[in-house]
Amino acid sequence: MSKPIVAVIGRPNVGKSTLFNRLTKSKTSIVDDTPGVTRDRIYGEVEWLNHKFTIIDTGGIEPDSTDIILSQMRRQAEAAIESADVIIFLVDVKTGMTDADTHVANMLRKSHKPVVLVVNKVDDMVHQTMGMYEFYNLGLGEPIPISSGQALNLGDMLDEVVSYFPDEDAEAEEDDKIRVAIIGKPNVGKSSLVNKIVGEERVIVSNIAGTTRDSVDTEVTIEGQEYVLIDTAGIRRRSKIKENIEKYSIIRTIAAIDRADVVLILIDAEEGITEQDTKIAGMAHEAGKGCIIVVNKWDAIEKDDKTMNAYLKKITNTLAYMQYAPCMFISALTGQRIPKLFDTIYAIAQNQSQRISTGVLNDVLYEAMAMNQPPSDKGKPLKIFYMTQVSIKPPTFVIFVNDKELMHFSYQRYIENQMREAFGFKGTPLRFIVREKG
Ligand code: GDP
Ligand code: GDP
């Protein structure tokens, strides 16, 4: 159910970004035009054979001395070890093995995470193979030669990567617990919110199971419903280099979103919504999760009767693609509206799993078409034959039409709105797949 995460780590200039672009380019994302998200993208989706996974390029930082290279690589590796399912450790045949490579290899060996050692820039598979042998010394098994630049041998590498993926059946977290990821930029109040929830008298905290020091799942029971809170605060606390750390904490955020049913996107009321918030929100939206926009620190600002509406307006304008997500104003400090927050989380978790029968769905579709006719292009009208729901989390629908080109975004949006009116679906994105039927 949740997609495996593959992290690419390695020194600057070994070709991480080139490899990343190579693997993600051909893939057309459903929401490639989500504003604020596609810029400096460092994560993307890859499909290989029957597998889909998320790849994260942890690079893109230009350290200026060997010391910094080492410490940054160590942090990258830590973050990858913590949150990734498989690590691609990329080295460069042109520069050969370096001390930094050896250091990181030692860390990776100790972690017992699956590591695929990949030697890049082997543009000439016949004459450059000699340079490969020294990488056996890293003690990470057989190095796989590739050329990201020339797109050589990437299939062999991907075969190796997917061979480490956990067995899907064994991994599926199938129970009635509602998994809630709490995401947001540093200092927005993620830890405070978890602490406040856990500290409430009517909350039963059944266990706190930490996989590492930094990532902690908290299980709580509220009104008979079990929730797993996935907190993403962490590593950055130990470091002074804030911007860089945020890059690494993206891995944690992606991993948390991936496991969640409902994502709380925290925004700091004192600062208002920022570009970083938009990026983080876009990640949850793209992943198709239930979303709540949670404006925290509501206690800390001066308010009158217009303040909340002004906030709502700003947020709705900024996150225009997330109209389905409710916006709540809370205080992790005082506990204001936290019980209501859980009512909303519960409702959204139900909506994520809502199934509509084909008959009822098409009643709504035909009525929508009768009220507002499908568009035509150069005299050719769009015909929609019927639609059917194919999956949940998020609810996904296939629409059968005469010609895909005729299905304009605005008409699809109209149908979506009619469906939301009829069935609710508050808090969850909906996905549509348009198919031609002869
Ligand atoms: P990053 O810092 O690890 O992300 O590295 P980049 O992807 O930015 O690549 C660094 C340089 O190596 C760029 O000039 C790339 O064009 C070059 N490069 C990447 N892959 C290959 C390759 O397979 N062969 C060759 N010859 N050059 C490559
Ligand atoms: P995190 O980095 O997102 O986990 O943020 P923290 O939970 O560590 O909170 C950062 C700072 O914001 C701390 O000083 C908190 O006391 C403060 N804070 C968190 N939530 C609230 C709130 O609802 N109201 C106020 N006034 N301060 C808050």
From TrEMBL:
GTP 1 binds at residues 10-17, 57-61, 120-123. GO terms for molecular function: GTP binding; ribosome binding. GTP 2 binds at residues 184-191, 231-235, 296-299. Keywords: GTP-binding, Nucleotide-binding, Repeat, Ribosome biogenesis. Residues 4-169, 178-353 form the EngA-type G domain. Gene3D superfamilies: 3.30.300.20, P-loop containing nucleotide triphosphate hydrolases. It holds the Pfam family MMR_HSR1. PROSITE patterns: G_ENGA (PS51712). Signal peptide: none annotated. GO terms for biological process: ribosome biogenesis. CDD domains: EngA1 (cd01894), EngA2 (cd01895). SUPFAM superfamilies: P-loop containing nucleoside triphosphate hydrolases (SSF52540). InterPro entries: G_ENGA (IPR031166), GTP-bd (IPR006073), GTPase_Der (IPR016484), KH_dom-like (IPR032859), KH_dom-like_a/b (IPR015946), P-loop_NTPase (IPR027417), Small_GTP-bd (IPR005225). The keyword Transferase does not apply. Belongs to the TRAFAC class TrmE-Era-EngA-EngB-Septin-like GTPase superfamily. EngA (Der) GTPase family. NCBIfam families: GTPase_EngA, small_GTP. Associates with the 50S ribosomal subunit. GTPase that plays an essential role in the late steps of ribosome biogenesis. This is GTPase Der. It comes from Cellulosilyticum lentocellum (strain ATCC 49066 / DSM 5427 / NCIMB 11756 / RHM5) (Clostridium lentocellum).
